[in-house]
Amino acid sequence: MNDLNTRLLQAHEAGNSQALAELYEQAADAEADENAVGFFLTHAYIHALEGNLACVERLRQRLIAMGREVPHH
């Protein structure tokens, strides 16, 4: 995760929402701990929302499946 961490820091410095969403999702996918997965997916989702990215709904659905987001009624 060291290389991923470096890339995350670079994306933060650049303010690159697309890269941040992708990298945080990669970090989530690399984790086994459910809390860490939720943490990283939440960050991916926030950056996707900020960047108005196409992956917003997919990330939201992953968070709903984990019980960390509430579906709309």
Task: Characterize the structure shown.
It is built from 4 helices and no strands. The chain is mainly alpha-helical. The chain has one domain (2-65). Helix 2 (17-29) runs antiparallel to helix 3 (34-51) and helix 3 (34-51) runs antiparallel to helix 4 (56-65). The protein is flat. The termini are far apart. The mean pLDDT is 95.
Short recap of the structure:
The chain has 73 residues and is mainly alpha-helical.
The main pleated sheet reads as:
none
**Approximately how much helix is present in the residues?**
over 70%
Sequence of secondary-structure elements: HHHH
Mean pLDDT: 95
Strand content: under 5%
Q: Helical region count?
A: 4
Give the count of structural domains: 1
Please state the structural category: mainly alpha
The outline comes out as flat
Poorly predicted residue ranges? none
What is the count of β-strands? 0
Radius of gyration based on Cα positions:
12 Å
Distance between the termini: 38 Å
